[in-house]
Amino acid sequence: MADKRMLILPAELVKKIDDNRGDMSQADFIDYLINSQMKEETKETKRYVTEEQFHSFEQDVKKLLRSFLDFFINYDLELGKSPRNELEELVSRLQGMEKDLDSDSEKKATIKWK
Questions:
Q1: Which of 26, 44, 67, 76 could tie 81 with a disulfide, CB 3.0–4.6 Å?
Q2: In this structure, are residues 101 and 56 in contact, taking their beta carbons and an 8 Å threshold?
Q3: What SS3 class is residue 40?
Q4: Whole-angstrom Cα distance, residue 50 to residue 57?
């Protein structure tokens, strides 16, 4: 049989435990809470990214989209399709994206992809 110890708790806390433990004993409920809190603490550090990391990711995605657009424009030009209106529209969109990238450069953080 395991050693048992007495823990003195405020009456309000004991009432909270009794109200929320359901069919579990007080000891099992407290043990469950401690274990779940310890697991949450280790998961929490890995679950979130910083604002700088997210901003850097956003910039990398914009650059990737731009490279896709460049590729498809060049591919269409090699096939002989050159609709001027669509090309000018794409160029203006690319320039707009480039301006967005330049204006957001002050918050720049880098993530190295492997």
A1: 76
A2: no
A3: helix
A4: 11
What tokens were used for 102?
């330049």
Better pLDDT: 10 or 85: 10
Token look-up 């280790």 returns 42
Helix 11-20 and helix 26-47: axis angle, to 10°?
A: 80
CB 82 within 8 A of CB 76: yes
Summarised one tens digit per residue, pLDDT across range 33-64 is 888 888 755 555 566 778 898 999 999 999 99
Backbone φ and ψ of 63, nearest 5°: -65, -40
In terms of pTM, does the model score above 0.85? no
Identity of the amino acid at 91: V
